[in-house]
Amino acid sequence: MRAVVYDRYGPPDVLRIESLPIPSPAAGQVLVRIAATSVNLSDWETLRGTPLYSRIGGLRAPARRILGSDIAGWVDAVGPGVTRFRPGDEVYGDNLALKGGFAEYAIAPESVLATKPSGLTFVEASTIPQAGVIAWQGTDGTEAGHRVLVNGAGGGSGSFAIQLAKRLGAHVTGVDNAGKLDFMRSLGADKVIDYHSEDFTRRGPYDLILDLVAHRSVFAYRRALAPGRNLSRSLRQDLFSCSV
């Protein structure tokens, strides 16, 4: 199979295409023939080896030679003990522990996969697992009438967060650069802010602030929160999706 591999941390130049044997699934694992994968900030961090937490399991060299955690494709084979899937099933999931999505085939634990909804293309499905879960966790507890601010609302997780919060009846403020203001409005944001021209931490008060960029101090956000409310922070953000 063809795969994009790397053996040392660095810029995209360290990536190269190699021909590798197709892996075989062990007990509880599934071999997925990749149709699409998405590129997340976590992939970029693991490629560069920075911040330091991205080197967990591989301090001096990458623990996994093939990046790509968000995958979508067809089940090609299953290992012993797999009961939920069989060859030919369409699946998707966040294979963060084993990665491997930047290849024609990837091994994934059965537990991280789900059946792909028939209404989604493989490309669409591949954008959901990591970014969607971050948005779902970050907006948990939102209720009708809540004032929610999403920083980084024009990215993958942010675009899901806007829609989830609106579906729950919240008033949503989206923060990103000027080029994404119209996009955030199209997703349902009630108010949009260009962070280059306005300090959004001096607005509010908000019942929930979901920070998908995490470059500011918690104390800066605290002043924009309504008394007794919470701050959700995340260090990962989906960037884009590509077909394989």
Give the CA-CA distance, first to last residue: 12 Å
- What spatial form do the alpha-carbon principal axes imply? globular
Q: What structural class should be given to the helix and strand makeup?
A: alpha/beta
Care to count the β-strands? 13
Query: Which percent band covers the strand fraction?
Result: 25-35%
Query: Helix count?
Result: 6
Instruction: Compute the average pLDDT.
Output: 91
Radius of gyration: 19 Å
| Overall helicity | 10-25%
Core attributes:
244 residues; 13 strands; 19% helix; alpha/beta; 6 helices; 5-stranded parallel sheet
Task: Describe the structure in brief.
The protein is of the alpha/beta class and 244 residues long. The chain has helices at 41-48, 122-126, 129-138, 156-167, 181-186, 218-222, and strands at residues 2-5, 16-19, 29-40, 70-78, 90-94, 105-109, 113-115, 147-151, 171-176, 191-194, 206-211, 225-233, 238-243.
Q: Could you give the topology of this structure?
A:
Layout: E1 2-5, E2 16-19, E3 29-40, H1 41-48, E4 70-78, E5 90-94, E6 105-109, E7 113-115, H2 122-126, H3 129-138, E8 147-151, H4 156-167, E9 171-176, H5 181-186, E10 191-194, E11 206-211, H6 218-222, E12 225-233, E13 238-243
Parallel strand pairs: 8-9, 8-11, 9-10, 11-12
Antiparallel strand pairs: 1-2, 3-4, 3-6, 3-13, 4-5, 5-7
Helix pairs in contact: 3-4
What report would you give on this structure?
With 244 residues, the protein is an alpha/beta fold. Helix content is 19%, strand content 32%. The protein has helices spanning 41-48, 122-126, 129-138, 156-167, 181-186, 218-222; strands spanning 2-5, 16-19, 29-40, 70-78, 90-94, 105-109, 113-115, 147-151, 171-176, 191-194, 206-211, 225-233, 238-243. The strands form 3 sheets. Strands 3, 4, 5, 6, 7 and 13 form a 6-stranded antiparallel beta sheet that branches. Helix 3 (129-138) crosses helix 4. The chain is globular and about 55 Å long. Mean pLDDT is 91; it is low at 233-244.
